[in-house]
Each structure stands twice: as C-alpha cells, then as structure tokens.
Design goal:
CATH class: Alpha Beta
CATH topology: Rossmann fold
Strand order of the largest sheet: 3-4-2-5-1-6-7-10
Order of helices and strands: EHEHHHEEHHHEHEHEEEHEHH
Strand content: 15-25%
Structural class: alpha/beta
Oligomer: single chain
Number of strands: 10
C-alpha cells in the first residue's frame, strides 16, 4: 500500500479535480483506492457524493458528523483516542473518507501537540499521528493506494496530513503565483521533514506506530494551460520554462534525485467544456457519454482525456516505485 498526497500552497490550480479523476482512473486500473478528504473545504467530498447524502453526513443534529470528524471526535473532546473511520463505498474499488468543514476545529489541537511532542508527551503523539492511524486502520489489507487531498496552506492540519504520505505531487498553473508557491513550498517541506524526524525520536510509546514523515516530492503537474497546436500559448510559455529549475532548486533541493528523468509528470489540458458537464453528471470527464451531452468534439475530447489520465496515473505509480527503490538502497 502506498499513500500519495496532492499539495500546493497556491489555491485554484485544479488540485481537487485532479485527485478526483485520478481516484477514478486508478480504480478503473484495478487498484483498490481509499480517498481521504483532509481539506476543510471538503470540495472533493462534494464531487463524489450527492447533495442529499452530504446533507445527511453534515446534519446539525448528528454530532459528530459521519465524516473524518467521527474519527477525530474523541481526541478533540479529550476523552480518548481515534475512533474507526467513517468510509463511503463509491464503487467496489473506490472508497471515500468524507471531509468536513468542521475539520478546521482540529487545527489548534494539532498545532499545540506538535510542540509538546518534543516533551515526550504521548497524547500529543497520538494527536499528531491521528490522520496516519485513521487511514492505516481504514485501509488495512484491502487497499492498494491512498490518495489524500489537502487545503492550500501551510497550517498544522496539512503538516499532519502530509507526514502520512509516501509521495507528494505538486499541481501547478504556469503563472507567477505558482512559481512563488514553489519557492515557499520546498523550504517548508524540508523544515517539516526535519522537525518530524526530531520528534519521532521522542516517542514514549514503542507500540505507537508513527508515520515516517519523508514528505518526498515525486514531481509536478502543470494544470489548465491554454492549448494552441498542442503547445502552451505564449502567455504561459515563459512561466513554464522557469518551472523545472525552480522545482529542482527550491523543492527537490537535489537535482540528481531522479537522475535524468523529468520532474514534470504531465501537462494536463483544461477540458473547459467538459468539466461542467462532468460535474453535473457526477462522473470523471473520461466517463462522459452521449447521454451526458458528450457528442461530436466533446466525445473526442472525453476519449482523449482517458489516455491523458491513464498515462499520468501510470507515471505516478512508476515514480512511487522509484522512490521506494531509492530508499531501500
């Protein structure tokens, strides 16, 4: 089982839509996928589940909500450790741990626990590792891949989520804001990695399984670029040219980590006309049919998107295997 997180501190790059489509693609490839929505905005959850189901999950009469909050409630209230995860079966190969807007309540608890871990405080280690243990218990032996969606910030919730991941994928837009985001992202991941390494050594309970916290970037994906003759339009070209070196210098901080292989996992089209159609049909763009409105050029684009996402999904798996091989040397 491998765990993959998608993160960019710059919002609006299509990260959640990417996670949604890759989850469906991996399930179509025969992978048993568990998706964890750890973004307090819970947009990924709303993409998977109908509004009537969301209304039931987030009902004000139901405390805690039947979401990630159900697992965290004992820790937040200070009455115990994590509870079993609330998992929604989307298909036989695809499951979801629903997100919740109330997840932001856990932020201060995580922030406080991070400092106390240095004092060998066991409850703080249980709080900091809560996401990791919730996902591990929910996955058990029935999952091949865990996908984690997080919010666009450097808060304590994201830190606790990202230390769970075997690899981190960075979705980008080819613009100035994403470049600046990369310059901030690399040092922050490095800092979190070093800080967690210090804290793990202070764990007072040898039976408490903690995440490794490698926070290993495995590559970036350029999202939503304009297309003209299969090339990015000129307005984006100058930003696209700067991304590889900025990523290597600021994020990898080790240009030779993957030898001669490219850090760019894919350049994905926007599929502007298909996305609203897919959201209305509550399915990925590559599953759109004529009955959903995908006819003519739309039908061709839907078929083309399948190849794009299938290729990306395979590339990510190959990169995860490469990381594992490097770590085992």
């Amino acid at each position: 089982m491998k765990t993959l997180a998608f993160f960019n501190n710059k919002g609006g790059v299509g990260k959640t839509t990417l996670v949604y489509h890759l989850a469906w693609m991996y399930s179509k490839m025969g992978k048993r996928v568990l998706v964890a929505d750890l973004d307090p905005q819970a947009n990924l959850t709303s993409m998977f589940l109908e509004e009537s189901i969301l209304e039931s999950i987030w009902s004000p009469d139901k405390k805690p909500h039947d979401s990630i909050m159900k697992s965290l409630d004992p820790i937040i209230r200070g009455i115990g450790d994590i509870a079993p995860a609330s998992v929604r079966q989307i298909t036989p190969y695809l499951r979801l741990i629903p997100g919740d807007l109330e997840l932001s309540r856990f932020e201060s608890k995580l922030s406080e626990a991070w400092g106390k871990c240095l004092d060998k405080d066991e409850p703080s280690f249980r709080t900091t590792s809560a996401f990791f243990r919730i996902l591990s218990n929910a996955a058990d032996n029935t999952t091949d891949l865990i996908l984690i969606d997080v919010g666009p910030n450097f808060g304590a919730t994201n830190r606790a989520a990202l230390i769970c991941a075997d690899g981190i994928v960075v979705p980008l837009a080819p613009d100035l804001f994403s470049l600046q985001g990369l310059r901030n992202l690399g040092p922050t991941l490095s800092e979190w990695r070093d800080q967690w390494s210090m804290r793990v050594k202070q764990n007072p309970d040898p039976d408490l399984i903690l995440p490794l916290g490698g926070l290993t970037p495995i590559g970036y994906i350029i999202m939503q670029f304009g297309i003209r003759d299969s090339r990015p339009v000129k307005a984006y070209e100058r930003w696209s040219r700067q991304i590889p070196k900025t990523y290597q210098d600021c994020v990898l901080q080790d240009p030779n980590q993957f030898g001669d292989s490219s850090d760019c996992l894919a350049m994905l089209k926007h599929y502007r006309s298909l996305m609203p159609m897919a959201m209305q049909a509550r399915k990925p763009v590559f599953d759109l049919k004529a009955s959903d409105g995908a006819i003519g050029a739309h039908s061709y684009s839907a078929q083309e998107s399948y190849d794009d996402f299938r290729s990306l999904a395979s590339t990510i798996l190959d990169r995860l295997d490469l990381i594992e091989a490097i770590q085992n040397i």
